[in-house]
Structure formats: structure tokens, C-alpha cells
Amino acid sequence: MVRVRQATRQATLDAGFSLVEQTKVVTAASELARNTIIYGGGGDVRLEVMRDGMRSGVRLTFVDRGPGIPDVQQALRDGYTTGSGLGLGLGGARRLMSELDISSRPGEGTRIVAVRWKQ
Length: 119
Hints:
The chain is α+β, with helices and mostly antiparallel strands. The chain has a single domain (2-117), classed as Histidine kinase-like ATPase, C-terminal domain (Heat Shock Protein 90, 2-Layer Sandwich), CATH 3.30.565. Helices cover 38% and strands 30% of the residues. It has 4 helices and 4 strands; from the N terminus they run H-H-E-E-H-H-E-E. Helix 1 (2-14) runs antiparallel to helix 2. It starts with a helix and ends with a strand. The model has no long low-confidence stretch (mean pLDDT 90).
């Protein structure tokens, strides 16, 4: 998780994000990495600095081969948890990022793509 946080911080710097924006993206990345490890049994992350015309952003893609999320909409609700946490992780990550897409199938794993565009 430390390496994900460090790499995310560097990507946000490369994209020209403010300190507040950096903190939001690093916080979301940390939560998504934690979920990938705890609930997905580990996995892979890919970080990309994006350019779209005049705007820049950071895309984080987390992929695991864990048990999957049976009900993504329920998992995004604040307070819902299958573990011992507060149930704020996925919903919080969604609020911190500009875009959040979750693809998951029970027994096949989960893919989460989170994008934050520079404000």
C-alpha cells in the first residue's frame, strides 16, 4: 500500500494537481488498494497520467482475482461492509474521484477504474 500511495502522489504531481487534489487521489488510492488486498486477496494496480486537450488527470486501475462483489450498488452505500471497517471505502473513493467504474462478477474478481481530473 505504501508503494501505491507513493506512486499515486508522484502521478498527481506529474499531472499538476494541487495539494488538496493530491490528497484526495492518494486517499482514494489507499482505500482501493486496501480493499484489493483485504477483500480481493491482492492484485494489480496501474497508474496513468492522462491528457485530454487542455485538461490533465490521473487514472487508477485496480484488478483482483478475489471472490468479487455480489452487489456493487450495495457495496457503494455508506455503512455497508462485509468486514470490520466503517463501510465508507468505496463510497468515499467515489466521492473523492471524478469517475469510478466497478466491474465485478462473483467468483471472478473485481476491476475498479478511478479517474480524477485536475480542477
